[in-house]
Design a protein that fits this description.
Layout lengths: L8 H16 L10 H5 L2 H24 L11 H9 L4 H8 L3 H11 L9
Helix pairs in contact: 1-3
Length: 120
């Protein structure tokens, strides 16, 4: 939801392609050597706005995907299994709790979830 309107990522990408195909492809000033020419164009400003919307949508999706930031809290086996059911990766979970991957893997070993390399 951006500005009270639900916007889908695919719609923004379609808008970018329309601008690019309609204006940029035929632009006589369009050169990849001198992007300063593009920076003065009103269509370039629209492309930047679309890019900002994509960034905002991505951040919103990440925020929804990862429940609250748990930094400083102790990660429990129960919390870990809940987050895995939500399709969070180990790296995302470790980051959420503010712990490194080594400590994270040590926790998994202690819970009997992970095996050490080499089958130990």
């Amino acid at each position: 939801m951006i500005g009270g309107v639900s916007v889908k990522r695919i719609d923004v990408i379609k808008q970018i392609n329309i601008i690019k195909d309609t204006y940029c492809e035929q632009c006589p000033f369009q050169t990849y050597e001198n992007p300063a020419d593009c920076a003065r164009c009103k269509h370039y400003a629209e492309l930047n706005r679309c890019g900002a919307m994509l960034t905002k949508i991505s951040k919103e999706r990440r925020r929804k995907k990862s429940p609250n930031n748990k930094r400083g809290q102790e990660l429990s086996k129960r919390d870990y299994t809940k987050l895995k059911k939500l399709k969070c990766t180990d790296k995302e979970i470790a980051s959420m709790y503010g712990i490194g991957m080594t400590k994270f893997m040590q926790k998994k070993y202690s819970w009997g979830i992970a095996k050490k390399k080499g089958g130990e």
